[in-house]
Design a protein that fits this description.
mainly alpha
Length: 118
């Protein structure tokens, strides 16, 4: 049942983002920022954690999960280091995911022949 919940929740998040792209004049970058900020706000309101426990990877993998990860990192860093934690917490909590995306993107560019669209 965990796989089914992850599938339908992740699909619903992606479908809502697609609807925003097609029915509004919002650019994809703004929609991505909206999703990250929504995840952070839901994390701050303690709504995202039970949602993530229910949906598993369906909630932690999309951009909402990234926003929640940033929020948790900032919260922990502020508890440990005070005000300066606002600036370092997000970097510390998301460093592994961002680094992995960069490394795998670079490896993919070596395997495949990237080129500009014409």
């Amino acid at each position: 049942m965990d796989y089914i919940n992850a599938f339908w929740v992740g699909g619903l998040i992606c479908a809502l983002a697609q609807i925003l792209m097609e029915k509004t004049k919002m650019m994809p970058g703004r929609i991505m920022v909206l999703l990250v900020c929504t995840g952070a706000v839901l994390g701050a309101l303690n709504i995202y954690e039970p949602f993530q426990e229910y949906a598993g990877a369906g909630a932690s993998v999309p951009l909402l999960g990234f926003g929640n990860t940033l929020w948790k990192g900032v919260k922990e860093a502020v508890d440990e280091n005070g005000f300066i934690g606002i600036f370092m917490g997000g970097f510390k909590s998301s460093a592994v995911g961002v680094s992995a995306a960069l490394v795998f993107g670079y490896l993919a560019s070596l395997i495949f022949q990237p080129r500009m669209k014409k």
